[in-house]
Amino acid sequence: MLDDKRLRFVIGHYGSGKTEFSINYAVKLAKMGKKVALADLDVVNLYFRSREKAESLEKLGIKVISSSIRATAVDIPAISAEIVVPMQDTSYEAVIDVGGDPAGARTLGRYEEYFIDGKYDMFFVLNANRPETQTVEKAIEYLRKIEDTARAKVTGIVNNTHMLKSTTVEDVLKGQGLAQKVSEKVDVPIKYISAIERVAKELPKDLEGEIFPMTLYMREDWMI
User: What percent of the chain has pLDDT over 90?
Assistant: First the structure.
């Protein structure tokens, strides 16, 4: 994590786990004593968004930026002007959770002035269990479409192949095989292999990418 760029954009298909990864990443930075901002740019999906955990995240010292509409019973695709704060203020370590498809990534494209080569990372969260990204061809097509609409380039792949709380080591290794093939085709490294903590402990240590244990912040205890 320490060698990642200050601005980190997280993209991926619905159900890939990009929001869970974004939250875990922000929490790990905060626990390292960093000044962290987590921005929710997902104006497409109505469910499982980082803004839902704003209160608990702010208790950890994380600045959460989301909709400019402050109302629990209203869901309007309005982005707060504060989104530019962590992009401009270099004292922040920024994690930006982007909408989960090419249309959602278009929102990110409006901030292209901050996409300076070598000054940001864009992580493509890949879940091999999602139908739309379960083959090399489909995954690359999806990655390229998001790059085009976001006007930024993917710099790292995150293998986050999961079955929620039922995830096994075999699930992760299946995803690692896909991630390696995508990585070779697009010439982008695998940066992280994310998995729930009990599975992360059992993964081989010689895999490409950093093993990234995760807590399921977005899954309530009663959820499977």
Answer: 64
